[in-house]
Amino acid sequence: MKTKQIERVLTPPPPHMVGDGFRVHNYIPSGLGVGFERMDPFILMDYNSKFYFSPTDQPRGVGVHPHRGFETVTIAYKGSVAHHDSAGNSGVIKEGDVQWMTAASGVLHKEYHEENFSKAGGDFQMVQLWVNLPAKDKMSSPKYQGISNAEMKKVKLPANAGVVEVIAGEFNGEKGSASTFTPLHLLNAKLNKGGKATFNFPENYNTAVLVIEGNIKVNNSDAIKTDGLGLFKNEGEEFTIEASDDAVVLILSGEPINEHIAAQGPFVMNTRAELMQAMSDFNMGKFGYLE
Ligand code: MN
Question: How many whole angstroms separate alpha carbon 59 and alpha carbon 4?
Fold first, then answer.
């Protein structure tokens, strides 16, 4: 088995606010030369690095907005987020939980800091990914998967190295509960200082690691600091992460969909005509209603 090497290590671009509740570094697609296609099927990554929000009675967040053509996956590391959508789904994701929302043919939703978190204030740290859908599934029905940390598959590593949480896909033969439209793996490695974990993904899968906590070394050579993103080459299969101190690392790997991407704002389709249709449908109220 050939080693999958790091191609680039990125440090977070300057943050911007999404609504008033999400202070995000937009890693994908970004001015760092990482376009929509580079990590296909992961077409967007907004990273809210750890940030303290002061107490408030008015929950911060982002108001009602549409999506069509993909899935939003929100991973909560600190703080909690409440969500409502026009398909009638709602939920709260707390520290360690994941929300997997399939917008597909279209939903309206809103994303807010949960009420009690807002009142107390505190550290907030999240990742939101947009996972693209293949053309044949873009107009399928919206759905919602709330994955609590308690029900997440956890794989203990040997030598007290830590644990790997399987959000989607698999690790060492253990499968995560999220259902996906295309083959992908989404894992959280929680490593103790000095702990190592080895991962295997096909060469053609687009693969990256985001360091949520601590500092790591990849393949005993490339150092990645807290909040850094490591992009892998599309060569080789196997890589090893070693925690330089206690670390939490998000690992993403997915088979590219390799279809043309036509994106504008909250819509991601295959053609310009489909984008125009999405905007027209939204303007005509076909995405439903959400207060
Ligand atoms: Mn959204």
Answer: 43
pTM of the model: 0.97
Residue 191 to residue 271: CA distance in whole angstroms: 42
Token code pair at residue 79: 């703080």
**Collapsed DSSP state (helix, strand, coil) of residue 217:** strand
- The DSSP H or E segment spanning 25 is strand 22-28
pLDDT tens digits along 45-98: 999 999 999 999 999 999 999 999 999 999 999 999 999 999 999 999 999 999
- For residue 236, the CA-to-ligand 1 centroid distance in Å is 35
C-alpha 111 – ligand 1 centre gap (Å): 7
How remote is the CA of residue 67 from the centroid of ligand 1, in Å? 7
Please report the domains of the chain, with CATH numbers, ordered by start residue: 6-254 (2.60.120.10)
Rounded distance from Cα 139 to ligand 1 centre (Å) = 17
